[in-house]
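Following the same procedure, sequence and fold were stored together, as reproduced here:

>
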Amino acid sequence: MELVDFLDFNNNNIVDTHFVTKHVRFFEKQKVDITTQGFQVALLGVPDDENNKTFEVANQVRYQIYQLAPLSNNLSIIDLGNIKCGNNFADACVAISEVFQEIKRNNVILVLIGGTSKFNYGGILAYQKNDLPLNMVSIDSRISSESINESYTSGNHSKENDDSFSMFNYINIGYQSCYVSQAVLDFVDDSYFEAYRLGFLRTNMKEIEPVLRDSNLVTFSLNSIKHSDAPGALNSSPNGLSGDEACQLSFFTGHSNRITSLGVFDISIANDIHQTTSKLAAQVIWYFLEGLANRIFEEPDLKPQNFTKYLIHNNDSNQDLAFYQSNFTNRWWMEIFLHKHNHRIVLSCSENDYELACKQEIPDRWWRTFQRIQI
């Protein structure tokens, strides 16, 4: 089947603004061939909820994006319109998966816009079909055991042979303790996944940047933002991220060299009386695009001459911990070597992780990753 078979253009809000003129082309209107045009990002609307075939959220947020200023650097965007729903929620997720796989083959990053984060399962399904490792991040005030189970069972957790080693991680950013049971937190901990409480994030924002730098698929729920800044969230709360904190996280996400999809979800048009939440969602996406437009592709494996390597011997584990610092951006990475698999993993980290290692403390992300891939 062709890409066009999965798309619906009837609700596509086509507007003529400075942002559109500089960055955007429309798949249906301009008969664009996605395989030859060198697009970097694709926008795709998904339904307002799993039982509804309307696209009010996607159309409203899309409209608000196009009212914003052009990005500071060139970025080529293709607006795909909205997904064809099919007969039910499962059909819509399969369609999203097919679109995701097609544009990923062309190195295009997918931005999903819709009313419920449940449609992020379409992206997870694409990874499952292609047997790809997945680092998934959920920015949400709640940790759903259902979403963890869906992601975990769909992801490729680990492989035992040296030729095809892969790993999986599930990370929550911004959860609030009053909404998450201890049983769920224990499951996250026992699985060596990662969860960052709102209070930690607020005072350690720089520590979250490396987490997002390694992300493949990010779900950004507007439920993570406090009611005063996002009154139209599906399940708003008096507490949560501020609007500027949300945009900061989105900007970090845009700097990831590994990102393949961002989903911005959980908006209720009925509650968004003054379109405040739709405008914030548009700004979250704008800052993600701005991050993409200015990201620097660098990995210690690509050009080792551009990095300074530090080796720190850990007495307890009797092994050397390797850290790399970019000579250009000052960003940090750390290395995990798996003797069992004869495989090394380079994981993004912060300067604080390096300083902990200097004090003979093993960084938490290093330890969790090491333990998780032994399972």
Summary: The radius of gyration is 20 Å.
